[in-house]
Structure formats: C-alpha cells, structure tokens
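Notes for week 9. Today we move from apo structures to complexes. The key idea is that a small molecule is not decoration. When we ask for a structure prediction with pyridoxal-5'-phosphate present, the ligand SMILES becomes part of the input, just like the chain. The input block below holds both the sequence and the ligand string. Read it once before you look at the output, and try to guess where the molecule might sit.
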Amino acid sequence: MKTTTDLERRRSTLALSSEDFRRLGHRLVDDIAHLLAQIPSGPVTRGLSPGEAKTLVATDTPLPEQGSDPEQLLQRALTLLGPNSLYNGHPKFWGYITSSPAPLGMLGDFLASALNPNVGGFVLSPVATEMEVQTVRWIAELINYPVECGGLLVSGGNMANFVCFLAARADKAGYDVRAHGTRGAVERGLTVYASRETHTWIQKAADLFGLGTDSIRFIGTDTEQRVKIDDLAAALKKDKADGYVPMLVSGSAGTVSTGVTDDLPAIAELCREYGAWFHVDGAYGGFAAVADNIDPNLRELSHADSVAIDPHKWLYAPLEAGCSLVRHREKLRAAFSYHPPYYHLGEEAVNFFELGMQNSRGFRALKVWLQLQHIGRAGYKQLIEDDIRLARVMYDQIAAYPELEALTQYLSITTFRFVPADLRAKTGEAATETYLSALNKELLARLEKSGEAFVSNAVLGDRFVLRACIVNFNTTLADVQALPEIVARIGRTVDAGMRTSYRLA
Ligand SMILES: *Cc1c(COP(=O)(O)O)cnc(C)c1O
C-alpha cells in the first residue's frame, strides 16, 4: 500500500541529526558568549522606533511555504536581536524592575526545553516535579517563610499574586465560591484592601476573579508612600459595620514605584482582628528579606498567609519566573484541585496542575534551582545587599549634584529629577512644577534614546520624576557614579530647547 510505503520512508523534517544539533548548538553558544561580552561596552539600547523595528523584522512578510536552513535561521535571529535589543544585562540598565539574567539560568532554560518535562503532572515529570518542590522550599527558606508552605512557580508577579488571591478567595468567601460562582461574592460584599501604590495586578485580580474593581478599597499613603494604617483600620471598621466581608489585605514588600515597604506588622495585626487574609506582594522586594540593610518591617512577610515573589527580579532568573507561596499548603489545593490527593506507588505525589492555573507546565524551576545552588544564600545576600548599597551611593551622588534633586531611596530604587540651577529656589510653585515635569519627561525620552543609561519614571504627588532600580549584578560603582553627569548634560540641552515656550514667573 502506497501510504504505508511513504510512512516507512518518513524522515522527520524537524529532527536534527546528533551531529547537526551539536554543530548548531556549539556555534550558538559561541555567538551568545561573544554577544554577552560585547554588551557592557555598547549602548543599553539603540532605541528603535516601532516603525524601525517593523522594517528591520519585515513583519509583513508572508509565512514561508517551504523550510530554510536552520543554521542560517539562527544567524538571522542573532543578527536581528544581537545589535538591536534593549539589554537588561547592561551594567547601566536600571529601568522598571527587570533584572540582568544569570548565565547559568540561560543554560538551565536550554536544558529544560531539551528534556521538555511537563511539570503539570507527577507521572510526566517525576524528577522535575520534585526539583520544583525543592525550589519552592528553598525560596521559602531564603526569605524565612515556613518551608512546609504550598507553592509553585508561575510566569511572574502578576500570576503569583493571582494565585494567592484565589487561595484567599476560596478560603475567605464564606461559601463555596468555586461551585456557586462569584455573584455571591458581590452579594456578600467581599472586599479587598491595598494602598494606592499597589501594582495594577490587584485591579486585574478583582476584575478577573469576579469581585469587581469596586470591591477594592484603595487606601491613601503617607509622605513616604506607605499605606496609612489609621485609614486602613478605619476602612475595615466601617466596612465591617456596613456588612461587608473583608477578604484580603495586600501589603507591599517594596512598592513598584519607590520600593518602600508598608508597615507589615501593623497590617498583620489588622488582618488578625478582622479575619482577613494577610497577603504580601513581594514581587520586587521579597528576596530582600535575606539582606541585613533593609527596613526590618519587610521581614514580617514571614507571617503572611501568602507571598508573591519574583525570581525573575531579585534572583536574576531569566524571564519568566514568578512564585506563589501559601502558608497552609492545603489552602492552595483547596483553591484549585478537583480531586483528592493523588497517590503514586503508595506515596502522595505532587501534581502541580492542582495547585495553580496551568495544566501543562514548563520546567521554569530548573534555572532557579541551579542559580540558588550556584551562589547559595550567602551569594544572594551579598548581591542584593550590594544592589541596595549601590542605589544609596546613587542617591548620595545625585543629592550632591547641584542640578539634580534626590527624592526617595528605598531598597534598590532611587528617585530624582533634573532641576535647572536658576529654578532651584522656585520648586513647589505651580508653574515651575508643571515645567519641571514636562522637562523631566522629555529628558527621560532623550536619555532612553541615547542608550547611555536606562532608567524609567515614577510619579510622586503630581511630579514626574526619574527612577532608577538596580536589580543588576553587572552594575559597579563606576556605572552609578557616571549617572549624574549623563542626566545633567542631557537635562541642560533639553532645558535650553524647551524653556522659551514656557512662561515662568
Ligand atoms: C513587578 C511587580 C509586579 C508584577 O510582576 P510581573 O512579574 O511583571 O508580572 C507586581 N507587584 C510588584 C510589587 C512588582 O514589583
């Protein structure tokens, strides 16, 4: 029969011979090593516009009908990405909260995809499952969270917070929300509490998981952007009196904008009083619990009902790696599982699909597992403490620079702005403030485009300010010391061009 003959002759077009695989792989590793070595001496980014990126990629080219040579394809990918990327591993990259990637983690992702274990179910990934269990345990240990907790790796901080939110919802709804749906959550008035500085994950969570964003009580912050505990207490008290059910309070272990840590012990106390779930968003700052040079309030995360934490931030894992930790592991199961615990060969086996949102799951844990052992607790303590020390040096350097105004410094985030010498005495006046925000906005755009250094921005009150976040093991003292002059130089040019169009008293 003809079809049988065809299939007998089948040669898989996707397979590579062992020899080709080796050749391509070795060349790729060589090229990557070369690229990584070049990054520090070049710009942080070439600052391509959307149009330039589109032209470069030739985005509208139709899908090829036939295949191409794999070596050439890899070369093309390298030619596109190599010189044109934004390098978050560059020593002067301090934007958002994206870390430099650990080289061992890169290799870990390669190995993970080579074996391709499906870490959704134990049967499909017995050893990988156990390695993820161990990774979660070590993450807990690193931040002094109970090691018997439940937890899993997810794609990032948003997902990590979502998983914790769902565990809280199942536990605190007061009825079977998983069976009966979320109408009851609205009828019963389930409410959640967080400061105005909280990352937008909380809006997404309230929206996606049926409480609605109206259920969020955004609590104001003090002059240091910490949640006002008195206001939080008053909101809880009023809601309780009005018949609402406080479900969860989220405290920040390092806010995304300035890095400040909320008064977590006071939040813990209020949660106990009102029976609410005490959640800590430690996506950025959670790992700083290992450091000595931090606000001691941060250590209170060890008493939280759940913690969201991002290995792809302060463990420097390549994207993606977030992690949810839930104090009582059975509460994590209770939020996601439809089965009684699973036994394999007479022993209880972990099936991660029953502890989170994904079914099939990749082996994200491997890179983290490798990195944690590569430098150990002591290594991470040193790197994180050094990032924080460098951020403080940055603050001091900026404070000492006549045309720069240093604003805040928490964990490894420093905020500041450019203030022309003659406007120094007029800060606070409405017209000057409007101008300074516009000036710093334009300065930031120019700085990003220049590739000399990369920072992002924060909004403090109504002031648009610059924000540098050091989650970067490649940054040295010299990099930090270079920043004030770069910013001031660009600032002067921008000011010279903009000033005439503003009327300043
Ligand atoms: C980064 C961050 C998030 C979101 O994490 P992703 O990994 O970007 O999804 C949430 N909260 C805080 C405090 C963060 O710093």
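The CA atoms of residues 46 and 320 lie 24 Å apart.
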